[in-house]
Fold:
Amino acid sequence: MISVIIPVYNVEKYLCECLDSVINQTYQDVEIICVNDGSTDASFSILEKYAAKDSRIRIYTKENEGLGGASARNYGLERASGEYISILDSDDFFEKEMLEKAVKCADTTKADIVVFGGYEFDDKSKTDRRVESILKESALPEKEVFSYIDCKESIFQVSQGMAWNKLYRKSFLDKHGLEFQNIKYTDDAYFTFSHMVLAERIGTVCEGLIHYRVNSGRNQTSGIANYPDSSFAPYLKLKESLVKWGVYEDVKRSFVNCAAVFIRYCYDMIDRYDAFEYLHEKLRTVVFRELDICGNEDAFFDDWRTAMWVNQVMEYSAGEMAFSAARAHGSEDSTTAILRFRFPYNEIARNSRIALIGERLLGRHYYSQAVLSGYCDVALWVGKENPQRLSYIKTMDALKGKEFDHYLVAYSEPEKIHACKSLLDSIGVDRNKIVIGGQKE
Structure:
């Protein structure tokens, strides 16, 4: 028998589709454990209607603890009695043969875990997209059944840190006694990655068997700005466990790459500056060091862009990074970024002749916006440093003896802003002509 655990919280819009996908599986020997996590909508009523028609559905209700679904999953695990465990989020849904194919693989290979592929289901367009990273076949060893020993440098790239595309042997879970981490977001990453290392036998079904709903407003990144620590908390705990189990050095490269890629994903998705700044400073001062993400050669990373991002976080301020980071995931975030760090059109009139002060990322973005839009004339661009020795960025002395309509300061650090103001004061610039970009003092 398979125990399918479904944490339920305010999902009246999607719950029927989820339950139907389990009830109508070709493999019927299941118990469906629905943990109502304090829902305030019609979710509980929907569960009661389904339970009245199908005796395999068991409903439990608990108080919501204000974090993610971890406590509900753990609650369900304690009450599961099946030989295998499947965990399904209540806004997602299975392919009809998912359980049958996963159990067949588990029985044939005697696997502790079976990993299968999946789709992102776009709730707005109602379309599916097969996502390679749910099960990355290129990272698999050429074996029917394997363990981390067979792919030490890619074990955490085999599958993303989600529980819903895996079937677990219950005796294996009971042996190790791990729980879902009680944090707001990414609460299944520690549980999932830990078991991928602890499993002696891992099997795979290289088919898309689950549909993960996106663009519904419910997925983890929609609120990551309120809980930025969730981006790295699972990896701090995972590293601690890997060290305790004596396997960290074996899987270090895979771990560092996995942690860096996911943290960057969250970093790029944050849409509020105070949270972005907090996370940026936390990464560069504490987290990168504790997770061994900084101090590596670029070749240590699987993707040169990850290496470049790590180096930029360590070198640049939050203000300088925010525009680039927010652009990474498409037009919606570009809009957010432009509104936050766009050229200060409301303070500089069209066709103005300006001096741009700032050679780093923020200055470059302002220069690009001004030049590409043709909004105004950047008559002079100066900077305190010019490590790339770009001919068009002059030294600060070039400001002397020249007049401009505005002097745009493209630094975000208060000390640099203050130094620029002092310099401009010393050469007699009218303070009404000075515009401070980026993060205001």
Summary: The first helix runs from residue 15 to 23. The two ends are 62 Å apart (CA to CA). The longest strand covers residues 202-214.
